[in-house]
Structure formats: C-alpha cells, structure tokens
Amino acid sequence: MKIDNVYLAGIGTADTELLDVSEAVDRGWYDAEARERGALVSVSVAGETPAPDLAVQAANRALALGGHSADEIGAVFHTCVHPQGPDGWSAQHYINHNTIDRPVTSAEIRNGCTGFFASLQLASCFLASGTDSPAVLLTCGDNFSTPSIDRWRACGLFVLADAGGSVVLSRTRGFARLLTVDAVAAPELEILHRGATPLYPPTITLGRQLDFNTPVEYINGKVASGEMPPQETDFATILIEATEQSLKNADVTMDEIALVVHDGFHYDTLRDLYFDPLGIGEEKSLWSFMRLVGHAGVVDHIRGLEHAWKEGLVSVGDRVLLAGGTPGMEAASAVVEILEPAPAQVPDGT
C-alpha cells in the first residue's frame, strides 16, 4: 500500500533491564545448545511493570519528540500479543488517559507480531480519511514475565522479551517519511500453530503455558508420515512477496536499502527466514542490536528503528526496510525514508 504524506513525527521506547543469556543457562532456564545456535547475548525484561505502563512511557517519549499537542492526536491505536491486565478491561483507554487524555477513538489492534504494521496501515488510512486531526498515536507493549509464559522455551525460534514502543504518525511533518506498508498472508498455514489443539476452550483459560513448538512438531510429523501433504507455501515465500511489493511501491531496490529492521529472532532463524530469502548479509541487518534485546513481539521494529536513527546507523536520505512475520501466517513490510538526523538531546517525556 503506497503511502503519501504520512510521517513518523515521534518515536519512543520504555525502559527495561537486560538479562544475560548466560545467567539463564546457569539457572537452568535456557538450554546451552539453544544459546550457541541462537547466539543471543541478552534479552530485555520488565519485571512486574504492567505492559500498558511500558506503552505509556514509550508514548510520552514519542509525543515529546513528535511536537504535536495532545489536541492534535485524533486516535490511539494500541497493539500487543499478550494479555494486558484485568479481563474485560481496556488497555487502550488506560493508555489514552495516561498520555493525551482525550475523547478520541482508542482501539486495540491484534495481528500477532505484525500488529505494528497493521497499525501503520490503519492509521495511514485514518489520516487520509479527511479527519481534522493531523496525527495518530500508535502504541505497543508486552510483558511476558507471567506464569502463562516460559520466555526461554515457548518457541525454538526466539526468546520472548518485554518492551514498550510508540510512534506518533503525522500527515504534516516528521523525522522520517512512511513510503509504503504491505502485507501478504498465507491463511492456509494457520494450522501450523494450531496442530491438534481444540479451539475451545481457549488454552489460556485453562492455565496452560504458551507453546509454539508442539503444534508445529505435530504438523511436521503428519507431513513426514504422509498423512498430510506438504504445504505449497512457506514463510519465506510470503516474506519475499511482501518486501517486493514494498520495494516496488517505494520505487527502490534492495541494493538501495540502507538497513533492514527485522524481528529479534535467533541468528539461525534470521539467516534462514530473513537474510537468505531477502538476499542480504548481516552487515545490512540490525543483528548486532537485536541479539542484545531478543524478540519483543510487536515492539521489535519500533525499537530497532529508534536505535538505528538515534545511534546514527542511518543518515538523511536513507531508505530503511522494516520486515516481520506472525502466525497466520502473515508477512509484513514497510519502507521509511529518513528526513532528519536525531537531535543531540532527545526529550525524555516522562
């Protein structure tokens, strides 16, 4: 989806601590073999800080940087992948109340780890709809330090990390221009993360821990035994299609992309699912940063872009590709153009 006149005015992330992967191995939380294969150094953790409070802190920082007053924000779009608080409660209105505190629509957007891309798409449409408001607040936040999650073993592709992130999307100004946001789904692959698990009652209501591994192993076993045909599509295929759409819409080639901001997966996962399919090397990736923080679901691309911009890894005129994926399966991508260098001192906003 080609985007016109939409900018990233502000960006922010919440404070978290880093937990060394070696400590997790020593404590028996994480396998030494997985550490060697994944090559992670540490992951971000938030202790008992509620996920919505991570989003609030990030949002106030993005608002302080973005320059738009609260009265100019026409909507709040919040995205997450893990429960945010009390059942029946609205995290997005809590975030609104503790940031702009305005009587504007506040919606939760759920699309797994590509929720931020979905928020970009919907917010861009909102800004182009004729609304009088020149900006939208996008927030993300998850804290996986809960009894229903074993962050170290929930999935063999990554270690789950806690984080909060936010972007102020504007149709008037910004440090970067949003050129395109695209997504490609392969809905027939939803079975990979369902396996033999019944749909009712939902597993989280039974007190079971999140488990990405068992359903995938079940389906792979069915395929290996000949009981199921192999899937004709895989994640790499739809990732390539999504990024090709974005590159075309942004009128750039991969050679002209200065940096790829990707999920915070294990190194071997990134190599197989991102680097090799996209034809990029580690030098064009954010691996050196992502290996320090882990996979924070919807926040990966916000904090990756913020890090690259504030640390001077990208310059004015550079085009940056954001690429990610989620169960479903769906791959999403976006291209932004850097318009301004990061200020010498970024306002804290807290």
TrEMBL record:
Gene3D superfamilies: 3.40.47.10. Residues 247-338 form the Beta-ketoacyl-[acyl-carrier-protein] synthase III C-terminal domain. Residues 108-179 form the Beta-ketoacyl-[acyl-carrier-protein] synthase III N-terminal domain. Signal peptide: none annotated. This is Ketoacyl-ACP synthase III family protein. The keyword Transferase applies. Keywords: Acyltransferase, Transferase. It comes from the Bacteria. InterPro entries: ACP_syn_III_C (IPR013747), ACP_syn_III_N (IPR013751), Thiolase-like (IPR016039). PANTHER family: 3-OXOACYL-[ACYL-CARRIER-PROTEIN] SYNTHASE 3 (PTHR34069), BETA-KETOACYL-[ACYL-CARRIER-PROTEIN] SYNTHASE III (PTHR34069:SF2). CDD domains: init_cond_enzymes (cd00827). It holds the Pfam family ACP_syn_III_C. The lineage of its organism: Bacteria, Bacillati, Actinomycetota, Actinomycetes, Streptosporangiales.
